[in-house]
Amino acid sequence: MKKKKAGWIAGLTACILIIAAGFALAMDYGERIPEDRITSAAVERYGGKILSVGLKNENGREVYIMLLRHPRGEYQLALDAETGSTVALKKTKNASSVAPAPETITEKQAGSIATKRTGGAILSVEKGELEGRAVYTVRTRSGSNTTELKIGAADGAVISEQALPAPEQKKPKTVISEQEARTLALKKVKGTVIRSRLEENDDQYEYQVTIQSGKGTADVYVHAYSGKTSISWNDDDADDETDESENEQDENEIDEED
User: Fold this and answer.
1) 5 — alpha (psi -120 to 50), left (phi > 0) or beta?
2) Cβ neighbours around 81 below 10 Å, total
3) Environment class of residue 148 by beta-carbon count within 10 Å: exposed (0-12), middle (13-18) or buried (19+)?
4) How far is it, in rounded angstroms, from Cα 57 to Cα 80?
5) Residues lower than pLDDT 50 in the chain
6) Per DSSP, what are the bridge partners of residue 204?
7) What is the pLDDT of residue 252?
8) Can you give the pLDDT at residue 150?
9) What is residue 200's predicted lDDT score, i.e. its pLDDT?
10) Between the CA of residue 42 and those of 7, 11, 66, 161, what are the distances in Å?
11) How many other C-beta atoms are found inside a 10 Å radius of the C-beta of residue 149?
């Protein structure tokens, strides 16, 4: 009994609010509420988009008849022209049978909306459909952050916005480990390894091993797959090293691998 009473009170309250909103509209504009104001009120009250509106006389009173497109479907809506109250609301189409709203913004404009919102650069813009509504899916990147936005193609409204996880950085598969590269480099140049790192050069991966020796500092490049090495000296006094001795060591290393 209490539940029925609570439901009745809630329904009555909602009706009072709708009627009050209608009276407020009528007080502002006199006998008939202007079309633009009443359509705005209808969208604010029910959501969606007004596709068409017309004024009709029913039983001695003026009524605005509207076609409302909503994510749940299409509705025929009738509002009293003087009070703004809802006279009738009838669903005419389900969401699955409603065609997407006509596009009024371009891909470029959708991208501009996204960049202003996120402050990032455009990665991609794709047209699609969401619950019977034409949308643009725009991805932007700002630093390491990637954001995906869905923007209504009819009105440019941002429907949703979400941060995407950063792509997983995959390390290249190599035959030779970094420690093995250091060992090969020390066979070329005797000394102490200062640092080593894996680099990509012309789609080829190689280790750069920097060694401090008695002759100076050298960068030994070790191919990450073949193990072939080459040397670049950083000091002028070590420039006399010949390629001949290096080639001999390369051949010996290849023979050892075989």
Assistant:
1) alpha
2) 24
3) middle
4) 10
5) 1-5, 8, 12, 14-20, 22-29, 237-258
6) 201
7) 46
8) 93
9) 80
10) 24, 19, 9, 26
11) 23
DSSP 236: G
- Cα–Cα distance for residue pair 250/137, rounded to 1 Å: 54
Locate all alpha helices (DSSP H) within 52-163, ordered by sequence: 107-118
Q: Residue 60 phi/psi, 5° resolution?
A: 85, 5
CA distances for 77 relative to 14, 48, 120, 199, angstroms:
17, 12, 41, 66
Encoded tokens for 257: 């691998």
Tell which residue, 171, 175, 172, 173, has the closest CA to residue 227: 175
Structure tokens at 11: 């329904």
pLDDT for res 148: 94
Contacts of 159 (CB under 8 A, 6+ apart): 130, 133, 135, 150, 151, 152
Distance (Å, rounded) from C-alpha 117 to C-alpha 81? 38
CA 167 to chain centre: 13
- Record the tokens describing residue 163, joined without a space: 């941060």
Location of structure tokens 């609570």? 6
Phi, psi of 167, deg, nearest 5 = -65, 140
